[in-house]
Amino acid sequence: MASSSTPIVSDAAAGLVQLRPFPHLARLNAMPSARAREVYARGVNNPHSFLAMNRRYIRAAASHEAPPLSEAGRRVAQDLADNGIAFAGFGEFFVPELCTTLTERFHAYVEEFARESRGTAKGKGVYLDTVHKSHTFVTGDAVSTYLADAGVAAVAREYMGMVPRFVGTSFWRTRTATGSDRIYSQLWHRDYNDRMLMKVFLYITDVGPTEGYFEYLAGSHESGLLGPLFDRIGPDGFRAYPEADAVDRVMADLPVFDLDQVAPADRSGARAPWHRRPAVVRCIAPKATLIFADTYGMHRGGFVQQGYRDMVMTTYSTNFNVHKPHYAVTRGFADGLSPLMRLSFGID
After folding, report:
1. Which stretches of the chain score pLDDT less than 50?
2. CA 309 → CA 135, 180, 293, 334, distances in Å?
């Protein structure tokens, strides 16, 4: 098992590989003005453009062999298709000891962040510390092994119907809310960067009713019953947060389920109370819980009333993504990747 200390790498020493850019993001960045970005974004915010930009990755799903899905992998992929959200225990995908190592590394990142943090917090920083983000993939490193797991990528491939593209990771410590009102990602929203995603959230700490649990509106992913709602492009060319009053009207009559009140055997398939029906799922759960969510679907989280929440987030998107990727891959690590994972990481 790798050490809990943070690997130290440099461009010169590690030999980083060139990564394929996301074309949609590149086009947005090339627009001469905010108005031009908005016009372009509105024009391509549809399933036809989405499929056109993903043609290569849809075809590659048949030619790039993926690991066979485990029973847990098949279950998660089907639940994502049905509801936009799925759940698993860490041990269903990884050896339990890896969670201990990731927890140790998380604490090391927290200490490093505390030493280097400077200035006044702004935006999400008033309640959220990103203690590790732009990860560099190196051989012999537990974090790199976890984030580049081909079995998880195979779940995204099955759900998306294409080879997914890795976007990055964030190690988050969410602190107590600064006031009684929700702000930023604590509000209901769709992620701006794609029309289909798979984020994997790993709870590093127990997340109870007061520790900023993740919430998801089941059935609000693009193919769900509520998929067409709140798909609004803002003046900067990115998907905008919906109006709170409009969201409240939709939510008012929906059932709400606390994950910890639903037996593990009843969280999947037709037995899940949110199966193929609009419902709010409040992800109150112990550490070592894995939450798979298509965050094009409506979601919110991080409103901590007491204590804090430690969580690792991994993002797989499609080639339509407009979020700047935040990772690097060393040549040594790239050499050990399968053709599927090389394409996923944007390595040609």
Report:
1. 1-12
2. 21, 18, 18, 32
Amino acid at 310: D
How many Cβ atoms sit within 10 Å of the Cβ of residue 91?
14
Residue 101 · residue 204 · CB < 8 Å: no
**Amino acid identity for residue 178 in this structure:** T
| N-term to C-term CA, the chain | 30
Q: What residues does each domain of the chain span? A: 16-344
> What is the side-by-side strand order in the sheet with 289-293?
85-89, 289-293, 198-203, 309-317, 165-174, 128-132
Domain 16-344 has CATH 2.60.120.620: yes
Q: Which pLDDT does position 186 carry in this prediction?
A: 85
pLDDT value for 13: 53
As a three-state string, the secondary structure of the chain is CCCCCCCCCCHHHHCECCCCCCHHHHHHHHCCCHHHHHHHHHHHCCHHHHHHHCHHHHHHHHHCCCCCCCHHHHHHHHHHHHHCEEEEEHHHCCCHHHHHHHHHHHHHHHHHHHHHCCCCCCHHHHCEEEEECCEEECCCCHHHHHHCCHHHHHHHHHHHCCCCEEEEEEEEEECECCCCCCCHHHCCECCCCCCCCEEEEEECCCECCCECCEEEEECCCCCCCCCCCCCCECCCCCECCCCHHHHHHHHCCCCEEEHHHCCHHHCCHHHCCCCCCCEEEEECECCCEEEEECCCCCEECCCECCCCEEEEEEEEECCCCCCCCEEEEEHHHHHCCCHHHHHHCCCC
Cα 147 from Cα 153, distance rounded (Å): 9
pLDDT at 119: 59
* pTM for this predicted structure: 0.93
